[in-house]
Amino acid sequence: MKITKVEAIPVKQKGDILLINDSAQDGIIIKVYTDEGIVGYGEVDSAPWVIKAIIDSPASHRICQGLGQAIIGEDPFETDKIWEKMYLASMFYGRRGAVIHAISGIDIAIWDIIGKALNKPIYKLLGGEFRSKVRAYASTLMPYTPEESAEEALKWKEKGFTAVKMGWGGFELGFRENVELVRAAREAIGEDMDLMLDLGFIPSPDTPIDATSRLLLAKEIRQFSPYWIEEPLSPDDYDGYKMLAESIDTRIAGGENESTRYGFKQLIDYSKINIIQPDITRCGGLTEAKKIATMAMANNITTVPHAWSSGIVIAASLHLIAAIPNACLLEYCVWDTPIRKEMLIEDFIVKDGYVDVPQKPGLGIEIDDKAIEKYRADKY
Fold first, then answer.
1. How far is 46 from 96, CA to CA, in rounded Å?
2. 124-145 burial, b if ≥16 CB within 10 A, otherwise e?
């Protein structure tokens, strides 16, 4: 079997893009074709038109090639070889950031091809099933008032989730407002539901985003028993993350903006955070995510993939979580965005707080090509 074509399809919700922390307002679907008629699907949670350029670009020279043409003729079963070929082919302009994001989408699609060709779900190809279902946490944005915070948190408890994460949004307000938002959420859901807090790193009017300020906030909201505090600092503030992780017993989580095993090595070895969150559509795909998770396990660190885009990343995350011992939770985006809700024929069902790992070949999902065409952004 040989790869014959790589197609990058940008998709976008109708209307204007809002400058909020909902990255599922648009996206880019990756399709990898083979000479045996098997097509694999992937996606990238990044800037769609940037990713499309990286994939579609013609070659400039040996280590400066568009990723799509660089892998034509390759055997999709040779995942590590293809990954390293893309990494080398983009070395001149890549190594991190958007190029690794583009590699990620292609890599997911290649694993989908392999699973379909072998008639096996991806988790079996990654090493086997440690769990057949995964506890899901409802992932949503933090509202701007305590009343709305309480309502939003309680809504997901009533829908059967046992954990909820509230992030960004209202956390751009000041210190005191942040505390009241968390207080309201915790009081609404009680003590029998896990509450994750994604503080983000947008400066507020009276609170700079530095490690000392974040440590003060973390100590204040510790009384509300957060399961973790996520990405409270810039992804580049390795010293700040180290200070937080060493100064408070609340779990510190991060890594959704990190990529490759090289980036995560620094986050793990130096920053000492408690939970890493590689996004499979950005960290390097399933090939790289498995290596990152193995490295985390060697350091006794839990891996909880970040997953806020379409159902494709949820499927990829479930396969990774199933195939590694150091995982425990699935990020389940509940934000009502068409790209998140409509790319699959059937969405994943949360039952008693859990989502079943797909058992069908490849990613184990059925893509809605009509939805892709409906939201396709490059046809106008």
1. 13
2. bbbeeeebebbbbbbbbbbbee
Q: What is the pLDDT of residue 77?
A: 98
Share above pLDDT 70 across residues of the chain, in percent, rounded to a whole number: 99
Question: What's the confidence (pLDDT) of residue 21?
Answer: 84
Question: What is the C-alpha R_g of the chain?
Answer: 20
What pLDDT band is residue 23 in, cutting at 50, 70 and 90?
confident
SS3 content of the chain, % helix, strand, coil (to 5): 40, 20, 40
The model's pLDDT over 146-205, given as tens digits with 9 standing for 90+, comes to 999 999 999 999 999 999 999 999 999 999 999 999 999 999 999 999 999 999 998 777
Domains along the sequence of the chain with CATH: 3-122+371-375 (3.30.390.10), 125-361 (3.20.20.120)
- What does the H/E/C string look like for 44-86? ECCCHHHHHHHHHCCCCECCECCHHHHCCCCCCCCHHHHHHHH
Residue whose entry in the numeric block shows the structure tokens 């072998």 = 118
List the alpha helices (DSSP H) in the chain. 48-56, 67-70, 79-89, 98-118, 122-125, 146-158, 175-189, 211-221, 238-247, 260-266, 285-298, 311-323, 338-342, 369-375
Count the Cβ atoms, other than its own, within 10 Å of residue 368: 15
Within 13 Å, how many C-alpha atoms sit on residue 116's CB side?
A: 21
Q: β-strands 133-141, 354-356: how paired? A: antiparallel
CA 102 to CA 112: how far, in whole Å? 16
Q: Which two tokens stand for residue 223?
A: 């009384």
Strand partners, 330: 136
